[in-house]
Structures are given as C-alpha cells and as structure tokens.
Amino acid sequence: MSYEITKVEKGKKVNFKNPAKEFYEALGLDGMRKLMYNFYDKIYESEIAHFFPQDEDEFNEIKVKNTKFFIQICGGPKVYEEESRGVELNEFMVRLHDDFSITEKSRYEWLGTMEEALRECDVSQELKDDFWDYLENFSKLTVNTFSDQSKYYASL
Ligand code: HEM
C-alpha cells in the first residue's frame, strides 16, 4: 500500500465509501482513541497546527469529538449523534470544514499526518487500506480554497 493521494478537481463529484465496520471492531474503543490522539498529537507539530485551537483544553475537546466521529463513521455506536444534531453525518462533516480555508496543500499535510499515525497503528494492512480509501476521497470534500484564491464549497 502506497498511501496514494489523488488530486482534488474543483467542482468534480467525489465518490467515497464509509470505512468498514471491521476497522472499528478490530481496534475497539481504546485502539480508536489511541490512533486519533496520536494523530492529533502529530497535527500539533504539523504545518497545519495553526488551524486548530492552541488552548490545551479546547484541543483535547477536538480529540474527543474526533474519536467519537470516527467510531460512528466506521459503523460503531452512534456516539457522535449529539454533535451532528440530526444532520446526516457526512453532510455535517463537510459543512463543519466550510468555516476554515482549506487548500489542497493543507489536505496533503492532514493526510500525511494521518498516514504516519496509521503506520503506527496495530491493525491489518487490508483494513488500513480501506480506511485510507475513505480518508483520501472524503478529504477532497473539505478543500474549499484554490490556488487562484477562489472558493468552492463541495456538496455530496
Ligand atoms: C477525511 C477528511 C477529514 C475528516 C473525516 C475530518 C474530521 C474532523 C472531525 C471529526 C473534526 C471535529 C469535529 C467537531 O468539533 O465535532 C474536525 C475538525 C477540524 N478539522 Fe477535519 N477532517 C478531515 C479533513 C480535514 C482537513 C484536510 C483539514 C485541513 C486543515 C481539517 C481541519 C479541521 C479543522 C480546522 C477542524 C476544527 C478545529 C476547531 O474546531 O477549531 N480537517 N475534522
């Protein structure tokens, strides 16, 4: 697995599939937490750290919410339901990112950071590949700022 990244094409429909439930089942709650906390610890030292809260408590809150989201998107218990307030989960997540000016370069940094965390995670390569496929595609929907300074907010 090469953790390949394909480019965003502005305005082009993005096809993605939610991750396999087996990914969550293999990791369990503790494994999922470990992966996501490790990811955010790396984000803190990344090129995109400035996007995130610098206050420790606020940053920890993001870690908790992020872990809940990923548990639910993998088909685990609906622990993020309260946050998404009845809005369909993927739609909610795309719209949440509209508040930030996210470029392709930021997406590469985000994915590169996730790749590092995934490489340190103890789960089969097959499940990592499936999870990566979701991340690589879905992350295209979070990119809303382009090199000509134009904005485009993707829809599902
Ligand atoms: C597969 C793609 C992605 C997924 C599934 C995802 C998921 C999430 C989740 C679950 C949260 C926490 C939501 C909450 O507060 O309830 C979040 C917040 C955030 N994400 Fe993403 N994200 C993705 C891509 C990106 C990318 C590429 C960036 C680029 C910078 C990014 C930047 C942020 C920022 C800035 C926040 C909010 C921090 C704050 O509330 O201050 N995300 N994301």
**Secondary structural class:** mainly alpha
Percent of residues in β-strands: under 5%
Molecules bound to protein: protoporphyrin IX containing FE
Q: Helicity level, as a percent range?
A: 40-55%
First-residue to last-residue Cα separation: 27 Å
- CATH class bucket: Mainly Alpha
How many structural domains are formed by the residues? 1
Largest sheet: none
Architecture in CATH? Orthogonal Bundle
**What is the name of the CATH superfamily?**
Globins
**Tally of DSSP helical segments:** 6
Structure description:
- The chain is an all-alpha fold and 156 residues long.
- The chain has a single domain, classed as Globins (Globin-like).
- 54% of the residues lie in helices and 0% in strands.
- It is built from six helices and no strands.
- The protein has helices spanning 21-43, 56-73, 81-84, 89-97, 104-119, 125-138.
- The model has no long low-confidence stretch (mean pLDDT 96).
- Bound molecules: protoporphyrin IX containing FE.
